[in-house]
Amino acid sequence: KTSFNCIFNVSFSLRFKPFRRRPLPAQRKYMRSPLTPEMATQEVQLNETLAHLKTESETLKSKLEEERAKLHDVELHQVAEKVEGLGQFVMKTRRTLKGHGNKVLCMDWCKDKRRIVSSSQDGKVIVWDAFTTNKEHAVTMPCTWVMACAYAPSGCAVACGGLDNKCSVYPLSLDKNENLAAKKKSVAMHTNYLSACSFTNSDMQILTSSGDGTCALWDVESGQLLQSFHGHAADVLCLDLAPSETGNTFVSGGCDKKANVWDMRSGQCIQSFETHESDINSVRYYPSGDAFASGSDDATCRLYDLRADREVAIYSKESIIFGVSSVDFSLSGRLLFGGYNDYTINVWDVLKGTRVSILFGHENRVSTLRVSPDGTAFCTGSWDHTLRIWA
Amino acid sequence: MTSNSNLSNMRRLVEQLKLEASVERIKVSQAAAELQQYCLQNASKDALLVGVPTGSNPFREPRSCAVV
User: Fold this and answer.
1) What is the pLDDT of residues B26-57, one digit of tens each?
2) How far is Cα A380 from Cα A344, in angstroms, rounded to an integer?
3) pLDDT value of residue A2
4) Which three-class secondary structure state does DSSP give residue A234?
5) What is the DSSP letter of A183?
6) Which residue ranges of chain A lie beneath pLDDT 70?
7) In Å, how far is A295's CA from the nearest CA of chain B?
8) Sheet of A93-98: strands edge to edge?
9) How far apart are CA A137 and CA A368, in angstroms?
10) What is this structure's pTM?
11) CATH code, B1-67
């Protein structure tokens, strides 16, 4: 029954992504007025410079690949051959959070390791106590498809957004009767849907990514744009901040199949990786900050090392053909959890590259997955309207 | 003019590639060894990897009603 439903859902929804666009179109060719001889010469010169630049960029690209390849002396799993293999894992659903009326699209843990915020296609954002499964707060957004939500580091606010192209911050009140929507603060404004958001180290700044192809850093209090990040050629679908000890960088992934690492202060893209064969739906830093993992519609997860400046592992199996929506590491970085569109969660041994476990339970695609701050459990959200806590 | 903006885009791309090409890199063997070392050093603290003593994982305990 499960596999039949899988196939049926896949046939029309395999490539479904709300409002995802093809790569940005080239500049429109405006109606041209007849060229004068001077303009014609200028045009020829411009075309020559353009061709020259194109050749230069091709040369640089192959030089980049050459330099990267020179240092590729061994595979990660070869280095890890002597490491003890992992035993059997007993991970089960320990809690099921029911209450959303439609697909759960995103979730985030509070630093207190027990509260969770989740957002849904029906426009609702709910704050849960994961120990008791009680709902503590609920907000109805003015739009549907709330694709992004995040908990503030202090635990006193949540941010969310989606088809409204904005990211709004709601301070959480201790008074359960208070109307949260009244205190809403609009922080970020994009020109297309909000795909992901994250507070930085404090409640004061928020990082966002959008279907408009950009990421941006905002001051929460004033709503001011502090920095914008341009470089993706299509919708940006995900982002993750580097662990605080490693400095001011973040990684983003997009429909252009690229994962970009950015310097938050300068707005510069400092490293770029393009080995996936389809949209990158999720990126997550390795706990040490020296690497990051990505999950893609090409059904693979990949590990990129930032100091070696290349992909160092691929987590895939011939039998896995459905896209990965969401990835996260366990506390030590040894395990990589991936939520897939075939309703399962695959658990990978990061060092050896093998799958150690496959978890069943959700009745529709897993859309979001996060390990708790102290690593004792992880939470998944699904199109089946529920969230599950696994441990 | 469209050619002008194509030109500035190409210039930006070439500058970006030059920046990326100049990144300092280390060998994969060294990078891999350090990733592995991090894993092994922190393995004992990783509850999902090694499990924790019964009673200390709040999610593995059956839910109880808290009397406030």
Assistant:
1) 999 999 999 999 999 999 999 999 877 767 78
2) 10
3) 43
4) coil
5) G
6) 1-35, 176-177, 246
7) 19
8) A93-98, A386-390, A378-382, A366-371
9) 20
10) 0.87
11) 4.10.260.10
pLDDT, position B57 = 81
Each domain of chain B, given as residue ranges in start order, spans: 1-67
ipTM score assigned to the predicted complex? 0.84
Residue type, A158: V
What is the reported pLDDT for A19? 55
- Residues sharing a CB contact under 8 Å with residue A369, sequence separation 6 or more, in sequence order: A282, A325, A326, A327, A328, A337, A338, A339, A345, A378, A379, A380, A381
Cβ separation B29–A74 shorter than 8 A: yes
Residue A51 contacts B, CB cutoff 8 Å:
no
Q: Which two tokens stand for residue A224?
A: 């001011």
Among A residues 172-231, those touching chain B with beta carbons less than 8 Å apart: 231
pLDDT the model gives residue B52: 73
Q: Is A135 on the interface with B (CB under 8 A)?
A: no
Question: Quick one: pLDDT at residue A14?
Answer: 36
Residue ranges and CATH numbers for the domains of chain A are 77-390 (2.130.10.10)
Angle formed at CA A76 by CA A71 and CA A78, multiple of 5 degrees: 105
* Interface check A288 vs B, CB under 8 A: yes
The nearest CA of chain B is from the CA of A334 a distance in Å of 5
